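Components:
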Amino acid sequence: MSVGVPAVVRAERTKLWTLAGARWLLAGAVAAQVAVGAAVAASVEEARAPDPVRSSLAGVWVAQVAVVVLGVLAVSSEYETPQIRVTLAAVPRRVAVLAAKAATVAALVAGAAALGTAGSLVAGRLVLSGNGIGLPLAAGSTARAAAGTVCYLALVALLALGIGTLVRDAAVAIVVTLSVLFLFPLLGLVVSDPAWQHRLHRYAPMDAGLAVQATRRLGDLPVGPWAGVGILAAYAAACLLTGGAVFQARDA
Amino acid sequence: MNFVPLLRSELTKLLSVRRWLVALAAMALLTIGFGLLSSAGSSTDANEQASYMVGPSGRAVNDQLYLVHGPVAGDATVTARVVRQRASHPDAQAGLMVRERMASGSRYVSIALTPGHGVRFDSNFGEHVRHAGGDAPQWLRLRRHGPEFRGEASADGRTWREVGHADLPGAGRDLQFGLFVNSPQRLEITRTAGGTGVTGFPTLGRATFAGVRLAPAGAGAVREWRGQDIPPVLPGPSKDPRLAGKDVEAVPPAKRGVSGSSAGAVAATGGSFTLTGSGDIGSAEGPDDSVQASLFGTMFGLMALASVAVLFATSEYKRHLVRTTFAATPRRRPVLAAKAAVLAGTTFALGLVTSVAAYFASRPTIRSSGFTLPAYAPTSIGQPAVLRAIVGNAVLLVAFALLGLGLGVILRRSSAAIALVFALAVVPLFAGAAIPPVSKWLMWLTPAGGFAIERAKPPSAELAEPWSQINPWLGLGIACAYAAVALGGAAWLLERRDA
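Structure:
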């Protein structure tokens, strides 16, 4: 007996959507993205206006914490109960299970991220216009930053899913994913050697992935906007592939 | 039920999970390893770039002032009243000084009035700094008795209070006594995402002294005193005429630590002296902190520790062990207290050993990275500030562990609790570095400010690290307050809620 791809995706969607806390996490991600983005936009001074679009989209720093938890729980929750055995009994092709999970998580997070990104841009525009700073919603660079932010959050969810598949334990997976995202940019703060700093900003998944949010002085970026998203995608793909290989090889 | 068996049972729970022991070991290794990595990456070329004046202890110093002075033989007392002082800079000085030599970097003792910080006593570039309240007009007195010097201040010239005292061992019979004025550069600091820019603008101090007396009569004569810039200003183009005698708002920026001339002047009328001068006296060491670099790995080790702390609480719920625990000990708060005590004790012991190890392990790397004399004074574990950073780091780890435990009991889900610890402890560091206007507030409002305790140097706004801006004790206090609130909330919920 074989189960069709649509059915597998539907099953994963049902599991994810009914996961305790999933809706809270998504709502939290959207709320955090908009609220933090508006707060940061409010702190922008006209004289030193760095980048109104990037400031308005800064809520992604907090929103990604919720996204990471969701990406990890999408797989680790199955291991907390014997659910994973039921899943694999119904769909013995494990690659299909993981692919369906990845598609579902990415779609769900991208939907929430689109909502949060649109909300942050509108909120940022309102807040910034109060300070006399314009935010061009229709500009190409704004569109790139917005689309890039949605891609970023979806890729972060996939990275978390890959690490979650690899280590299975929610606590460990969350710690590992968040450390990979946050701690390397922080290391860039104390490392004063310029060559090392450049390397850290170029190849750290968060710094590289968020370069796409810049709309001004693109020449100063350590990595091109879409190239940075590509670097993050490479991390996510590597984690998913490793996770998938291990998932395939070991007992459930 | 007695508390000791509770402690023993909680200790057994903590030590019997192999994964947690692995995570605790990982905390130690991550802390030390990333400390080494950040030490290696924190190279400085300060010693090659700048030509430093070197003070008596071999450290880089600033020694810039305008001095009206003369030789004084043997024990003597010099007294003067600072009638008024221009508020050119909060740390501008106008006061009395005794120097061994006129060359830069000579040993000295000084007492001076400042516009922002009262009366300041100092010797040898920060060896014995003491502050006391007071503003202009203010009487100041500097007394020599053999190698010992006492600085005193008085509001009326009759009742004196000692501000500080210091020794110049082996000082000769003849020393230079005098009046001095200086005023440090005004620093303009711009914070950008991931960096800071520092620009210095010279300021010109100005103060009027009256009632200048030297006793005993045979020691010397004030009327023979002459004004002199330290370091001497070379005649010619290096002397900036715009600096002499008027307010300077925007002169070309000079680099910190190497700014040259004080370009001062003196006008004496009817027993009163009006001095102008600029510059700074004190350590010229930069604010970057090698102790902080050694302990930086704590941020990485912290995450391993936080997961153990959270799981120490949540695993009881996951496996329903908590029902057994509460069946054995129906009073729940002592159980939480025992858990907290065991976790705090273990974390403090491990954190202290790890911090000491991280400090010593990174010393050779720190030295080879360029943190050497004269630009950077060597640190040693015996210095109070270094000890504070190391022990404070262990306390910070305890605070984060207890925060994790409290949130674990409150939320009962490890994923949510760990994400929240991370959001509170690490996200503000990153957001603070990336969003300059809110960085200080983020440090004041979140436990991430606790990382300020890892610095052995005073707070500085010149660095990109957001936590370096706030007071170390304040930062640690905030982190401990978060832990206390989380534990308090956990204790409250534990009694009200079903297990």
